[in-house]
Design goal:
Length: 154
């Protein structure tokens, strides 16, 4: 739908992912927008051609399964079916490429790791030296927010 706000969340295995998804879903529902999810798989090794292709297929299947699991939660929270993207490569590079290729994406939502190691490598990269490469606003949600706290601010 033209003019519809699309909130992109990068999917990984971190616990704070659920925080970013809930925030994006609540904002999408409140604004008549939609949620999109990006899952980036590691590139397959080219050392053993046949093995590399099998590894690529397994990673792709894993990504699709994870996205399908989350898609039902997103639909329940946002009221709409999410847009799903699977890419292969380095997460930051693939995210920036997707943002350049998809003009429908209007907001990037990431949740910060509340642990002592910092917010996470993607947030660190995007909020510093790569900030100028973003064509959309970056929303960083504290990864320690409860569902109630997210609901209160959205």
């Amino acid at each position: 739908m033209p003019g519809q706000r699309v909130f992109l969340v990068v999917v990984d295995m971190s616990p704070e992912l659920k925080v970013a998804l809930r925030f994006a879903c609540r904002r999408a529902r409140a604004t008549g927008g939609r949620v999109a999810m990006l899952y980036v798989t590691e590139p397959a090794s080219a050392e053993w051609l046949g093995v590399g292709e099998i590894m690529r297929e397994e990673r792709r299947a894993e990504a699709e399964n994870r996205l399908q699991e989350l898609a039902s939660e997103v639909r329940e929270m946002s009221g709409d079916i999410p847009v799903l993207y699977v890419r292969e490569g380095e997460p930051r590079a693939e995210l920036l490429k997707l943002l350049d290729e998809e003009p429908s994406i209007s907001v990037l939502v990431l949740a910060a790791d509340p642990g002592p190691k910092g917010p996470g490598p993607l947030i660190m990269a995007l909020s510093s030296k790569h900030m100028g490469k973003l064509r959309v606003p970056l929303t960083i949600v504290p990864g320690s927010l409860s569902a109630e706290a997210i609901d209160a601010v959205t």
